[in-house]
Amino acid sequence: ALADLAARTSRTADKANARDGSGDGARTGTATGIEAGAAADGSPVTVVYATRDTTADWEPVVERAEALGFPTVPLESDHFFVGRAGEVGETVADALVPRLHE
Question: What are the Basic and acidic residues biased-composition ranges (predicted)?
C-alpha cells in the first residue's frame, strides 16, 4: 500500500514539477508527497500500513496522513502483509467502494 502511494505521489509531483519547472521535488514518495500527489487530485486517500514493517519508512507517512485528516489503518504485519491479504483487500474495498457511487 505504501509503495503504491509512493509511486503515485512521485508521478503526480513529477508532472507538477515538469509543468512549472520548479524541480523542487516535493519530497516525492514521502510524507509531504501525500499533499503533492494523491490528495491534490481529489483521489480517495487511506493509508494502510504494516506496524512491523522494517523496510518502508511508514511512520512519517502515517503521521502526515493523520495530520491532514486522512484515515489510517494499522495492520499487525510485516512489509508484505503475509497472511493478511483478505484483511488488506477488505480494508481497501471499504475505502474505495463508497467513491464508486459518487
Answer: 11-22
CA distance 97 to 75: 20
- 34 contacts: CB under 8 Å, gap ≥ 6: 5, 9, 45, 61, 64, 65, 68, 70
Structural contact between residues 31 and 63, judged by C-beta atoms closer than 8 angstroms:
yes
pTM for this entry: 0.64
Answer yes or no: are the C-beta atoms of 55 and 80 closer than 8 Å: no
Q: Tally the domains of the chain.
A: 1
In this structure, what C-alpha cell is assigned to residue 47?
493509508
Which structural domain range is residue 16 located in?
2-100
CA nearest neighbour of 95 among 43, 59, 53: 43
The strand ranges marked E within the chain are 47-50, 72-75
Give the number of other CB atoms < 10 A from CB of residue 74: 12
